[in-house]
Amino acid sequence: MRTLSFSAWKDLLRNTLALKAEPIERMASTAASLRTAIYIVVVVGLVIGGVQALFGIPALISGPSFNTDEFVSQMNQQFDMFNTFGGEMPPEFDAFVELFKESITGYASVIQELMQVSAPLPGFFGRLLAWLGAWLSAPFALLASWLFISIWIMLFARLLGGRGTLLAYLSASSLSTLPHLLHAFDFVPCLNAIIWLVAGIWGLVIQVKVVEYTHGLGQGRAILSVILFYLLLAIIAGLGVSLAFIAILIGATGS
Fold it and tell me: Is 1 helix (H, G, I), strand (E, B) or coil?
């Protein structure tokens, strides 16, 4: 997996957050950039999880559960969903799937073992391993979120006439995770809502620019590609709430 020097990280972060085109063009230029893309998402996840672990006392007491098979199953479901709604996939999609699975194979099993360590060890070491497992599992949550969102935006971009390749788009879309470094400070109550708003909007703007460049769409259709995904989520959430409310009413009436 290609790594970045500290200087390269600073330049990438500064230019991406300043919404310059150069990082997007560079990330979308070669297939090898996908390895760098996964590396970027993993590092962002590690930073977020690391800062939260240091300041989050609950994480030192008990870590969240992590199941490798369940995680891989969720990823396969997302790939299947994209295949179902996206039609015939380009050849590079298979290459991406293999690369993604390869990048988590050795890492996931170690994390699962760490998360399952419990009682027999002395209290301090048990809490330390739970803390470490919670920290190292953060990149998986970010990887899953990034992949899920990007695949759906890619689908809507295609439906709106986009002609970009999957590898180029996914490579460049990894840059949209950089504003989410702000989530490292979610533990600060007074900043939580502001962080979610700023990081979310900043990431969406980067996604729009990525869609524009990689799919050759105008700004209007690029914005629509991104918005349609969140509109779909809002509709699904609204239907869920409505059905739950109806079920409660029916239950109350029946009783």
Answer: coil
